[in-house]
Amino acid sequence: MAAVSVRHEVGQALDELVRTGVPGAQAVVTERGRSWEAVSGVGDRRTGKAFPHRSHVRIGSNTKTFVATVILQLVAEGKVKLDEPIDRYLPGVVRGNGNDGTRITVRQLLQHTSGLPDYGPKLTDGPRHYEPAELVQFAMTLPSRFEPGTKWEYSNTNYILAGMLIEKVTGRSPAAEITSRIIRPLGLTDTYYPAPYETGIRGAHPRGYDQDEGKWVDVTDQDPSWGGAAGAMVSTGQDVNRFFTALVGGRLLPPAQLAEMKRTVPADVFPGAQYGLGLIRIPVSCGKELWGHGGSIPGFRTRGGVTTDGRSVNVTVNQVTATGSADVLKVVDTAICAR
User: Fold this and answer.
1) Environment class of residue 223 by beta-carbon count within 10 Å: exposed (0-12), middle (13-18) or buried (19+)?
2) pTM score, two decimals?
3) Cα–chain-centroid distance for residue 21?
4) Cβ partners under 8 Å of residue 94, min gap 6
5) Considering only CA atoms, which of 68, 71, 35, 31 is closest in space to residue 53?
6) For 311, how many CA atoms within 13 A lie in the half-sphere containing its CB?
7) Kind and range of the H or E run holding 30
8) How many of the other CB atoms lie within 10 Å of CB of 273?
9) Is 5 a catalytic residue?
10) What pLDDT tens digit does each residue of the chain (339 aa) get?
11) Distances from the Cα of 104 to the Cαs of 117, 147, 239, in angstroms?
């Protein structure tokens, strides 16, 4: 079990995080197969209740790491080549306004060095269900951001295409492949990729909030298809920790593919970050090697990862706009570096 001092420091850090303006926050710390939780603030503004035990939350872009893992498994099986153009697998899909799938590799999609624009600015018609091809079509109406391979810039379009690649190669949806290749083998019983048109969150969960002109808005229920393979999944802190521990520990990928995943480039996703293939090396004050990702989706922000010595943490807040990623990362740093 964690030392009393570690629990105390994490609790204090969560209290400071809540003071920045989010309704509530939760940290789940796992070490040697045992997890503990700490919470602060409220998980439900109406009832005043805290985050429930084993809270199910929308994990946003942590989905990208699951998707990248499946693709690297397909690479290991000889079904996908990292340095082949995406046009080989999805002919004619990436075309227009300087976007050219014959010049963008699978590796560049997974590493956000493709230069493809994010489709987000085109989603102006309010909440509804989106198909992956539709999201890519939105992106293709925007100009290419830069020459492929010359810069790094985060774009959800990359991972919508990665999901389409999985379906093209396997004949099954990204949800089905993630479930059969990762969720079931690891026993992640609280993790799932939402079904089409599913808007609620299964299991015990906090409410997720946004603010509109100073008013609190409950955005817990939403159709996450706009995030798709870039950010639709739901999980718990315990399951996210188990996933990253298994991944970095070599249980999901052969050594060669895990090494490719950990080949990084500088990325401004947060200060000092290094981005691999759907996996981020996250700087912490004590100098430990921390690998994870993180996710932000209306109502929820998660940050965390696992160290090479086996301590993992996932921190969740139930509002995105009131506080920054750096504030959440302070709790991650505390949980990883406290003794």
Assistant:
1) middle
2) 0.97
3) 23
4) 86, 87, 100, 101, 104, 116, 136, 140, 161
5) 35
6) 18
7) strand 24-31
8) 18
9) no
10) 456 789 999 999 999 999 999 999 999 999 999 999 999 999 999 999 999 999 999 999 999 999 999 999 999 999 999 999 999 999 999 999 999 999 999 999 999 999 999 998 777 666 799 999 999 999 999 999 999 999 999 999 999 999 999 999 999 999 999 999 999 999 999 999 999 999 999 999 999 999 888 899 999 999 999 999 999 999 999 999 999 999 999 999 999 999 999 999 999 988 899 999 999 999 999 999 999 999 999 999 999 999 999 999 999 999 997 777 899 999 999 999 998
11) 13, 9, 33
User: How open is the CA angle 173-177-181, to the nearest 5 degrees?
Assistant: 175
Task: Quickly list DSSP for 174-206.
Answer: HHHHHIIIIIHHHT-TT-BPPPTT--S--SS--
**For residue 20, what are the CA distances in angstroms to 9, 25, 51, 277, 330?**
17, 11, 17, 32, 12
Amino acid letter for position 99? N
Structure tokens given for 184: 């079931």
Helix 4-19, helix 325-337: angle, nearest 10 = 170
Residue with tokens 């990359």: 158
> What does DSSP say about strands 295-297 and 300-307: parallel, antiparallel, or unpaired?
antiparallel
β-sheet bridge partners, residue 272:
none
Burial class of 308 by CB neighbour count within 10 A (0 to 12, 13 to 18, 19+): exposed
Q: Please identify which of the residues 35, 40, 55, 61 carries the catalytic annotation.
A: 61
Report d(CA 296, CA 120) in Å as an integer: 13
Q: How far is CA 191 from the centre of its chain?
A: 13
**DSSP structure string for 234-294:** EE-HHHHHHHHHHHHTTSSS-HHHHHHHT--EE-TTSTT-EE-SS-EEE--TT---EEE--
* Beta bridge partner(s), residue 211: 216
Tokens of 25: 């926050």
